[in-house]
Specification:
The chain has eight helices and no strands. It has two domains: 134 residues, no CATH class; 63 residues, no CATH class. With 199 residues, the protein is mainly alpha-helical.
Length: 199
């Protein structure tokens, strides 16, 4: 990113203002770190701590992505401070102008990094959930709420009239899990999985 922006400025006959470039990175890093830290409302954290509300799988996936976002933001901050030092040691030969190329380069890099990070988070989180369910093969059949959350994570919608057993079986097929062990009639076979209402 830094090399691309500097090369573009050199091709345009402009001298690189490293101090301005550092400020752009500092602003971007501060925004990423701040938005990740302030994503969850304090009431949700308190309710989760006292057991009033358990964390949903989607919320856990978002938390993993926010940690990645913090890492990217910290890297931006470190790079920004480094460029600020370079700017102090190598001041621009010409009067500073608005660092438009740096803003564009940082914005594009941020979008690409966040998109790649979201894809990695979703892929890794599905793998972690699949590993956990493989270790506890009976969880889906004994916990309809968990089955619904895993189904949402893997794109399995609850159809009207689905029983817990039939819905859990479809979730297992979608996640690549082995069929549930047959231990005779289960009470959950007759229970229904209702589609979750929004709001």
């Amino acid at each position: 990113m830094i090399a691309v922006a500097a090369s573009a400025e050199n091709d345009a006959g402009l001298s690189t203002d490293w101090g301005a470039a550092g400020l752009v990175l500092l602003l971007a890093g501060t925004f990423l770190v701040g938005s990740a830290l302030l994503a969850r409302h304090p009431r949700d954290l308190v309710a989760e701590r006292f057991g009033v509300r358990s964390a949903r799988l989607v919320a856990i996936k978002e938390h993993i992505f926010q940690r990645l976002q913090v890492m990217i933001g910290v890297l931006y901050l470190l790079a920004g401070f480094a460029l600020e030092l370079v700017g102090r040691l190598r001041p621009a030969a010409e009067p500073a102008s608005f660092p438009g190329l740096w803003v564009a380069a940082v914005a594009l890099s941020t979008v690409l990094l966040l998109a790649a990070g979201w894809w990695w988070t979703a892929s890794a989180f599905r793998r972690y959930v699949r590993e956990r369910l493989s270790a506890s093969p009976g969880d889906l059949e004994s916990d309809p709420a968990l089955a619904r959350e895993v189904g949402e994570l893997f794109g399995v919608d609850a159809a009207p009239g689905d029983s817990v057993a039939s819905y859990a079986e479809r979730v297992r097929r979608a996640t690549g899990l082995p069929p549930a062990p047959r231990t005779g009639p289960r009470e959950t076979s007759a229970r229904r999985v209702e589609p979750e209402e929004d709001g």
